[in-house]
Write a structure and sequence with these properties.
mainly alpha, AhpD-like
Amino acid sequence: MAKAKAKKAAKPVARSANYELGTKIRGKLMGPAFAAKMNADVYGDPMMQKFGDYAREAVFGMLWSRPGLDLKTRALICVISDTAQARWPELAIHLRMARIQGWTEDELSEALLHLSGYIGLPSVREGMLVAKEVFEALHEEG
């Protein structure tokens, strides 16, 4: 009988300045408790850890930190992009970020509704259902 191979832990990416900056920005966008929960639930797996390390360094550390737009505007861009592309799990994350950055539930629902003339009602309906769930979860969290 073959022995089951133990999972090897992924080697973490070198802690570059962009990685450290990305960690800080990601925590600010998601809230520290949610970021820690995502680290444990999603990025605890060695394969997903590699993805998380890359996203932290390249996306949060390099892209989100660029000059020219504030974090609040960048979060809204992600909400719109996710809805237009039907990326529902990502939309939930970005709606949370948008709320934390100061967008109100009314502003976000209006932004989603505005999309109906451009991307169609089915995607907007789904986006609003995702928003409803995220907003309810945020209310429960306090």
